[in-house]
Amino acid sequence: MEMQFGHERYWTIYVEDHEDGFAGLHIYRERFGNTALAATVIFWDASGYFSIQTLDGDVPVAVFEATIVEAKQKIPTR
């Protein structure tokens, strides 16, 4: 997913950790030349559900909606 939202650009990168038992997407934000990890959408094997965590301020709902659709398509679930 890549999305422009005002002065901010958001994109996702797929992540997977077999040791901790999760797969998900990191949401990065570029704002005025600065890049930060803004949030994560993770599927935890142990619990069997997705979770969202914000890490660096607010993230527009439209960005989460697009990321959730992408996560459900890319992340294998049981």
Please explain how this structure is put together.
The structure is a single chain. The protein has 78 residues and is an alpha+beta fold. It contains one helix and five strands; from the N terminus they run E-E-E-E-E-H. It has one helix at 61-74, and strands spanning 2-5, 8-17, 22-31, 34-44, 49-54. Strands 1-2-3-4-5 form a five-stranded antiparallel sheet, covered by helices on one side. The longest helix has 14 residues, at 61-74. The chain is elongated and about 40 Å long. The model has no long low-confidence stretch (mean pLDDT 93).
Keywords:
18% helix; five-stranded antiparallel beta sheet; 1 helix; 78 residues; alpha+beta; single chain
How big a fraction of the residues is strand?
A: over 45%
Kindly state the number of beta strands: 5
Radius of gyration: 13 Å
The largest β sheet comes out as: 5 strands, antiparallel
Question: Number of helical runs?
Answer: 1
- The general outline is elongated
**What are the low-pLDDT stretches, counting only 5+ consecutive residues below 50?**
none
Helicity, as a percent range? 10-25%
- Give the topology string: H per helix, E per strand: EEEEEH
Q: SS-based structural class?
A: alpha+beta
The spatial strand order of the largest sheet comes to 1-2-3-4-5
- Averaged pLDDT, please? 93
How many angstroms does the end-to-end distance come to? 23 Å
